[in-house]
Amino acid sequence: MDRLRFFRAGLLQVVAVGSVLLGLFWLNPSRADSVPRLNTLYNFIGADYPHLGNFELSQLLQASDGDFYGVSAYGGVNDYGYVYKVSRTSGQLTHLHDFNFADGATPRGPLIQASDGYLYGTTEAGGANRSDYCYAGQFYGESGCGTLFKISPGGSFTKVHDFYSAADGYQSAPSTGVIQASDGNFYGAAMQPFPSATTSIFKMTPDGAVSVFHLFAVDASEGYLAYAGLMQANDGYLYGTTSSAGAVPGHASGGCGTVFRIALNGSFQSLHTFTGAPNGGSGDGCVPWSNLIQGQDGAFYGTTKYGGSQQGNCIRGGCGIVYKITSAGVETVLHRFTATAADGEYPQNDGLVQTPDGMLYGATGGNPYGEGYGYVPYCYVGGGTTFSCGTVYKIDTAGNFTQLQVFGDSDGAYGLFPHASLILASDGNLYGNTFAGGGWGYGTVYRLVLNPATPILAIDSFSPAGGPPGTSVVVSGTGFTGTSEVTFGGGDSTLAASFVVDSDTEITTLVPSGAQTSAIGVSAPRGTTYSPALFYLQPVIDSIIPTSGRVGSGVTLSGAHFDGIISITFGGVPAQKYSYVTNEDTAINVTVPPGAQTGPIVVTNPGGSAASQTFTVRHMRRGSASESQAAVSRNAAPVHRRTGPAGHASVGPILCPQTDTARRGSVPVAAPGCGPADSAQSRPIDLAR
To answer: Which of 17, 20, 226, 229 is deepest in the core (most CB within 10 A)?
Structure first.
């Protein structure tokens, strides 16, 4: 199993809730559960995951057909990103278009559905125009400057514009998507890298003519780099943010992001410059990466990735804020994140959505970057820092904050790291996505159920927790009547399992041959759902090399299903450290522990145990140099066990040559403790913790 490995969004598209039933629900929100439940609508699989670049998913869009649409910045057939569709009823995912660089690469920012029914978006790289000034395209070594495209819900794709030409003012790298304003034109943010690097807002007419609408001041006093999209407010202005710079007293660009507005006649106004928090104290936010929304009260609401408070777990840069700002530029900080179990950290790209009852909902992205990043806690699934794997929360306009869900709880089977804003769909529920975790470790599309009238298909539990192929598993939940398929993970795809529907709340199924540790999926008339925990396959040990050795020496175990390891014993004596040999879960290195006895090596995970052939412990002569070295090894400080990112001690390869990118389901960031000096090492996982 090579999944379950640990390792930007813009415009808010809200679908109106129009039915009488939903209207009654929002008028009487007390009917809703106090803690909304999570469902998994789709588990991304290996075929969805990129071989090049991070797995970055934009905010979803619910189109007029009721289904959800989004883009992945990387991956697809050509690894330049793709447009996908997820059926709201069945959970089936379809790749509508795979970018090929000529028509674009690295699609970022959410899609919109325009008045002509097409979905519009932008790619940061690719296209016909090439220049060394186009930094995004250089990721591929091809210097493409970006495109604007449209695609029908059925998948008919058209490249509308190639950026970086004299006609469009040499703008490039549009990374926020577009909006269609009340004048029928499209607007978005980009860069003008030549002759002086600055941020721009572009305008595109319905016939595809692109021009510069506004150039931000070259001295960055109006801000620099717009990573969030624009929105049009009730007053007709376009509002947005920049993620850095901005004028502060005594410095033209000393801020760390701005809020601005611009009229459709081009009149521009800076409303607020973020200044961050002082060392050891509390203050403003910093780096607004998420979209703004306009609340029912006419004010604007958003989040920043950093700033707020540089105290406690957030001493380097802060952990982000939720803020309110008026059209006059008066800002109020509603909440400062603390990177604790009370609220999580880093609402990066995670903006807010408001439900008809006035409540604001959002997510925190957590820390997928590694131990020591900003000094905030690292994501350890099922451990003491599950909040660092991402959370969902609600907050009212007065700042009263409630945490609702923690993605790192249990096995992280609902996903890990929600780095895109939630949307409110037509059924009254919230939908979002994650880029890791889930049933196959590649991320999820998830639902937060707010509407109590929603017909629920859900798996609540299953028993046993694991076992070998052929194991009979009882799945408990609701909505199972009419079930058409039960699945287990089988590498980059799913495997159908035989099953019997015992009742609307119970299914008995058999684990199919070839299954791997994964979530269990059920498809029924109400849709498709997945289990909130992973079913573990029993370990298999095929060989051990060598078959004998001294205390402190290493042994390589080869086999399968070395996931979620609970213990490894030598003749009944627990080992303390192990590490992965390859990028798979098929081979591990184990250190022979002090006190080890001759006998089988036994590996145990939630799926059961596997015993090897006899391993002979060779004892050292008293007083030998080898014995002295072993004593030093036994007294050495242990390396902390790593229980995430996908939630288990065995998950997280700690392979420094390619860091945590070694296994799919991970983003290309340095593994904890791995740097240039560690590039040839494999850090062991400590089982003694």
So the answer is: 229
β-pairing verdict for 540-545 and 554-560: antiparallel
Q: Residue 490: which of 510, 457, 514 has the closest Cα?
A: 514
Two structure tokens written together for 477: 């939940």
Contact between 276 and 286 (Cβ < 8 Å) = yes
Rounded CA separation 214/435 (Å)? 34
> How many whole angstroms separate alpha carbon 596 and alpha carbon 617?
7
Element (H, E) at 634: helix 625-635
| 455 C-beta neighbours (distance < 10 Å), count | 10
Residue 344 near residue 364 (C-beta atoms within 8 A): yes
Mean pLDDT, residues 618-628: 57
pTM for the model stands at: 0.83
d(CA 75, CA 527) in angstroms, rounded, equals 26
- Chain position carrying tokens 């109020």: 332
Q: What is the mean predicted confidence (pLDDT) over 14-27?
A: 35
Alpha-carbon Rg for the chain, nearest whole angstrom, is: 26
Structure tokens of 644? 């995430």
**Dihedral (Cα; 271, 274, 278, 283), 10-degree rounding:** 60
Q: Which residue has the tokens 């707010």?
A: 450
- Rounded to whole angstroms, how far apart are CA atoms 168 and 497? 55
Q: Are 30 and 451 within 8 A, CB to CB?
A: no
* Cβ atoms of 134 and 200 closer than 8 Å: no
Task: Report how far Cα 125 is from the mean position of its chain's Cα atoms.
Answer: 22
**Cα atoms in the Cβ-side hemisphere of radius 13 Å centred on 405:** 28
- Token pair for 64: 């007029």
User: Can you name the residues that pair with 282 across neighbouring β-strands?
Assistant: 309
Copy the structure tokens of residue 601: 């090596």
Beta bridge partners of 549: 617
Q: How far apart are CA 261 and CA 231, in angstroms?
A: 9
pLDDT tens track for 134-158? 877 677 777 799 999 999 999 999 9
Whether 596 and 548 have beta carbons less than 8 Å apart is answered as no
| Mean model confidence pLDDT for the chain | 84
**Cα end-to-end distance, the chain, whole Å:** 25
Q: Is the pLDDT of residue 203 over 70?
A: yes
* Side chain identity at residue 480, one-letter code: F
Alpha helix (H) ranges present in 14-67?
20-27
Write down all domains in the chain, each with its CATH number in brackets: 219-421 (no CATH), 459-536 (2.60.40.10), 540-686 (2.60.40.10)
Q: What is the mean pLDDT of residues 240-259?
A: 94
Listed in sequence order, the residues at least 6 apart from 394 whose beta carbon sits closer than 8 Å to its beta carbon are 359, 360, 361, 362, 401, 402, 404
DSSP 8-state secondary structure symbol assigned to residue 357: T
- State which amino acid sits at residue 662: A
Query: What pLDDT shows up at residue 372?
Result: 67
Return d(Cα 134, Cα 146) in angstroms, integer.
Answer: 8
Beta-strand pair 587-591/599-605 = unpaired
CA distance 531 to 170: 49
CB 578 within 8 A of CB 684: yes
**Whole-angstrom Cα distance, residue 154 to residue 221?**
44
- What six digits make up the tokens of 626? 């080898």
CA distance 460 to 455: 15
Starting from the edge strand earliest in sequence, which strands make up the sheet with 540-545, in order? 540-545, 554-560, 587-591, 577-580, 685-686
Task: Kindly tell me if the per-residue pLDDT of 32 is higher than 70.
Answer: no
| Lowest mean pLDDT, pick from 39-43, 71-75, 137-141, 513-517 | 137-141
Q: Which two tokens stand for residue 431?
A: 């939908």
334 within 8 A of 322, measured Cβ to Cβ: yes
Higher-pLDDT residue of 543 and 624 is 543
Query: DSSP assignment, residue 470?
Result: T
Sign (positive/negative) of CA torsion 643, 647, 653, 658? negative
